[in-house]
Amino acid sequence: MKYIVLAVAAVMIVVVMFAAYLGISPSSLLNATQATFSKNDGLTSRQYFLRGVEILDGDHPVLVLHEPAAGGELRAVDDPDLLRALAEDSYFSVNPDPVRAPFGFSHVANGYFISLFRDDRPVERWTCEARYCSTSDTPGVASQQSSLQPLLDASRPVTRIFEVLHSREDQLRAADAALDDPNVIATSIEARNPYLGASDFGGSFQLQLPTLFVSRDKPAPDRLQIAEADVSRMVQQLSAVLDASGLAWEIDGEPALNASQGMLLRHPAEHDRSGAPIIGSDGERMVMEAYEIFSPTVLIAGPEAMYEMLAAGHADHIRTAHGMTADVRNTIDNAVSQATGKDCYGCWEMALQHDIVEVPAVAHFSEPFYPLSYLRMQEED
After folding, report:
1. Highest mean pLDDT: which of 60-64, 91-95, 342-346?
2. How many C-beta atoms lie closer than 10 Å to residue 379's C-beta?
């Protein structure tokens, strides 16, 4: 029994933390979930979701019925008198018993079911178990029941609108215009791609530093320390190159080391079945066991001219002290020969998430963009 109590407590902590992330106060979340159930039948309970929820005219309350609640479309009600009148009797049924859910499914939310907004901000959210909300004839699960029809009859269709602006000023102007529209429910504005700092430097791009091969003869903490020290040295050299350009720039946070263990594949020049995994004598696919591989990357905020400068090779003098040397290749050749029983001289290639590079390599340049998204109700006839 104590394990059940601990599990329930853990779930509640996660739910409250997620609610905080969405801008919903824990007290509001608890109010929305406490004392709103009454037994309906052996498999379901009714959730009277509006009971105890304050509906004030001056708060511009809007109840949004999401697709699972509104038959596949998004709809909304913005009549506070109607919401107050229907608060006591409006419910939808849920399956509260995860043990009796089909095939062991429990309370997996199918997105939002119903949301309440005040002054363009979500203040209450209600969800429903995915299989239960989307299915009415699943064996062992009763058909969902609700008293949502009066709300649906009074509702208006809602459209999700997403715009991309290319300056912060344009974004704020568009957001102000949206908020002046009485049919707009909520807006969300942000600077994006790949991160906020890009807006101050005209864009951003990723740069991959030379790939490191660090021997596994050393303990894992030592391997990490070696990689961090070498990457720090390369970043210092990169910073000197960027400073010398005379352009404004910034590196976002710390470099990502991207440690991995590469899978060894047949080399196209050596085998007809190029790209197929190399199988050792033990029947297992071969991976790089002798070395830990680091593919360090940095995110640089800077103008397109800086991207073009680096793409032209102005940082090609930056090299790692732990690259793919002849010793590394010989070690891999010998390991493959021993595992397969066949002589191998460069008969392999390596599958990694990042390419193996000897000099810094830049990825696609991205201009900053400014998304604006909002919900808009269809105008009344």
Report:
1. 60-64
2. 9
The pTM (predicted TM-score) of the whole model is: 0.56
Q: How many residues in total does the chain contain?
A: 381
Going from N- to C-terminal start, the domains of the chain cover 35-154, 159-193+368-381, 199-362
DSSP string for 215-232: ETTS-HHHHHHHHHHHHH
Which residues lie closer than 8 Å to 284 by C-beta, 6 or more apart? Answer: none
Q: How many CB atoms lie within 10 A of CB 245?
A: 15
Amino acid sitting at position 231 = V
Order across the sheet with 212-215: list the strands.
212-215, 291-294, 259-260
If 0-12 CB within 10 Å is exposed, 13-18 middle and 19+ buried, where does residue 47 land? buried
Residue 4, phi then psi, degrees to nearest 5: -65, -45
Q: Which of 360, 374, 266, 280 is nearest to 320 (CA)?
A: 360
d(CA 353, CA 214): 17
376, 161 Cβ separation under 8 angstroms: yes
> Residue 36 above 80 pLDDT?
no
User: Is pLDDT larger for residue 230 or for residue 173?
Assistant: 230
Determine contact, residues 377/158, Cβ cutoff 8 Å. yes
How confident is residue 71, by pLDDT bands cut at 50, 70 and 90?
Answer: confident
Q: How confident is the model at residue 304 (pLDDT cuts 50, 70, 90)?
A: very high
Measured distance CA(124)–CA(109) in Å, rounded: 15
Contact 273, 266 (CB under 8 A): yes
Distance CA 353, CA 295 (A): 9
265-300 b/e with 16+ CB inside 10 Å = b? Answer: bbbeeeeeeeeeebebeeeeebebeebbbbbbbbbb
> What amino acid is encoded at 71 in this protein?
G
**What pLDDT, in 10s, does the model give residues 233-257?**
999 999 999 999 999 999 988 999 9
Burial status of residue 67 (CB atoms within 10 A of its CB: 0-12, 13-18, 19 or more): middle
Q: For residue 329, count CB atoms less than 10 angstroms from its CB and return exposed for 0-12, middle for 13-18, buried for 19 or more.
A: middle
Which residue has 């949004």 as its token pair? 64
CA–CA dist 132, 138 (Å, integer): 8
